[in-house]
């Protein structure tokens, strides 16, 4: 199983993997390094906003009447 590729468990994990390996997106001038940095920074803000707020399921579990 260690050799079977796994999908990231969260947006943050996906962005970390993209930071480590994004050379394939630079080939053929599909994207630029600057664009990828800007895009991942914007997505990290989204991930932080989600991480810092309760999930709707938490409201269902603890606050639903």
How would you characterize this protein structure?
This protein is mostly helical. The protein has one domain (11-62). The chain is 62% helix and 0% strand. It has four helices and no strands. It has helices at 11-20, 23-26, 33-51, 56-62. The longest helix has 19 residues, at 33-51.
Topology:
Layout: H1 11-20, H2 23-26, H3 33-51, H4 56-62
Helix pairs in contact: 1-3
List keywords for this structure.
mainly alpha; 62% helix; 65 residues
* Shape summary: elongated
Low-confidence stretches: none
| Mean pLDDT, all residues | 91
Total number of distinct structural domains: 1
Q: Note the main sheet.
A: none
Order of helices and strands: HHHH
Ends: how far apart? Answer: 43 Å
Number of strands: 0
Question: Number of helical segments?
Answer: 4
Helix percentage range: 55-70%
Which radius of gyration do the C-alpha atoms yield? 17 Å
Structural class: mainly alpha
Beta-strand content: under 5%
Kindly summarize this structure in a few lines.
The chain has helices at 11-20, 23-26, 33-51, 56-62.
């Amino acid at each position: 199983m260690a050799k079977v590729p796994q999908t990231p468990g969260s947006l943050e994990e996906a962005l970390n993997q993209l930071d480590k390996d994004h050379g394939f997106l630079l080939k053929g001038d599909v994207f630029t390094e600057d664009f990828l940095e800007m895009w991942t920074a914007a997505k990290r803000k989204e991930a932080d906003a989600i991480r810092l707020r309760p999930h709707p399921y938490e409201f269902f579990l603890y606050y639903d009447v």
